[in-house]
Write a structure and sequence with these properties.
A hairpin with a 5-residue loop joins strand 1 (about 15) and strand 2. This protein is about 5% helix and about 35% strand. It contains one helix and seven strands; from the N terminus they run βββββαββ. The protein starts with 13 loop residues before the first strand and ends in a 6-residue tail after the last strand. The protein has a single domain (about 15-100), classed as SH3 type barrels, CATH 2.30.30. The radius of gyration is 15 Å and the shape is globular. Keywords: Stress response.
Length: about 100
């Protein structure tokens, strides 16, 4: 039986990579890859969540899939300039991103 994991980061949260000059906005959390690579993560377990994000670096915007242990919060307050953000998110009061509210018929 698998142990229940809770995501450390939230949809719409701005994060950055711990090593590389990359930052982005999370749009999905994927548990299907958790622990499949068998590599231990910093807390000693073999399970890890994978986040999908609208990412950018110094050259180009792209979509990335990054393991939770490779990410950390980005508290710079700088907006993320990925062109796909507007289709899914609006900017919140605190500078973060929140999903568009959809009108229900």
């Amino acid at each position: 039986m698998r142990k229940t994991r809770f995501a450390r980061y939230n949809i719409g949260q701005v994060i950055r990579h711990r090593v590389y000059a990359m930052r982005g906005v999370i749009f999905d959390v994927d548990t299907s890859f958790a622990g499949t690579d068998g590599q231990p993560v910093p807390d000693g377990t073999a399970a890890d969540l994978v986040y999908r994000l609208f990412a950018e670096d110094d050259e180009v915007p792209y979509v990335a899939c990054i393991a939770e242990h490779d990410l950390e919060p980005d508290d710079s307050g700088e907006p993320v300039g990925h062109p796909s953000l507007g289709a899914m998110f609006e900017i919140g009061e605190a500078g973060g991103y929140r999903r568009h509210r959809r009108a229900l018929n």
